[in-house]
Amino acid sequence: MDTAKYQGIIPAFYACYDAEGKIDPEAVRALTRWFVEKGVKGLYVGGSSGECIYQSKEERKVVLENVMAEAKGKLTVIAHVACNNTADSQELAAHAESLGVDAIASIPPIYFHLPPYAIAKYWNDISDAAPNTDFIIYNIPQLAGVALSVPLLKEMLKNPRCIGVKNSSMPTQDIQMWRDEGAIVFNGPDEQLISGLVMGAVGGIGGTYGAMPELYVKLFECVKSGDMATALEIQNDCCRIIYKLCSGHGNMYGMIKEVLRKMGCPDCGSVRAPLAELIESDYPIADECVAMIKAAIAKYC
Questions:
Q1: Does the predicted TM-score (pTM) go above 0.85?
Q2: Per-residue three-class SS string for 110-145
């Protein structure tokens, strides 16, 4: 298994909309080029940051097609393909494989609390639809309503395509447990990337990485070189920026898109309802975030 392509900083890709709230293919391509220029390892497409649960499978296909048009051969691409039924998930999995993504990923089915054997069947059925592509479990119990367990992971690792876990649970102990079973693990909570890397994560996949990719790339480099003091300083500054990003009325992803606009990134539009859009009082907060990010980049990068 080629794990080198998964080692590093992998921003979660943001949904890109036009003025009418429709998927904007050119904005998707422009944002992808932005990330290529920032030196990140890869992109995680169609997850929480991509507002996947508010998009149709046809829209999600358009997003991935345009990401791959710019990123293929330049970045590692992991496509989150889960829908709340198996057939649609399989359709997205097959589509992702046809485009040549490096891996597909899936949360467990949401709403109904299914037994572990049913979750395993759901994931294996999705993986079967992309038989030549790595499969990654997305463990985010605080949103999915169900947590990955060691027995469920052991069952999934019987599938040779299942290589690991995107772990967004809060206990870093989980990373150690999944590693002990032979899985590679991506740290999920951005606020504890340094902790996840120390516990053995190969890299990180995060929703705020895109707002400040330079800082997370530098943090990763510091951990790998053993400069833990600087890594901790960067982590603390990233956390303070995250708290500020979350301090407005509007949804955090809307705030991040405004921050990116102010920093010269192509316009990605707003967020899709029912996510809350920014209001007037949010724009000064975005200015504060930009100032904090620029100051941190100047300090560390």
A1: yes
A2: CCCCCCHHHHHHHHHHHHHCCCCCEEEEEECHHHHC
- Which residues neighbour 101 within 8 Å (Cβ) at sequence distance 6 or greater? 45, 64, 68, 77, 78, 79, 133
Pairing of strands 42-45, 162-167: unpaired
Alpha carbons 43 and 153: distance in angstroms, whole number: 24
Q: Which of 282, 201, 193 is nearest to 239 (CA)?
A: 193
Closest CA to 82 of 72, 102, 96, 69: 96
Contact 9, 217 (CB under 8 A): yes
| Among 92-101, 142-151, 197-206, 281-290, the least confident range | 142-151
CB 130 within 8 A of CB 104: yes
Pick the closest to residue 213 from 5, 3, 44 (CA basis).
44
Query: pLDDT, tens digit, for every residue of 125-137?
Result: 999 999 999 999 9
Q: Tell me the catalytic residues.
A: 138, 166
Which residues make beta-bridge pairs with 166? Answer: 138, 186
DSSP notation for 42-98: EEEESSTTTTGGGS-HHHHHHHHHHHHHHHTTTSEEEEE---SSHHHHHHHHHHHHH
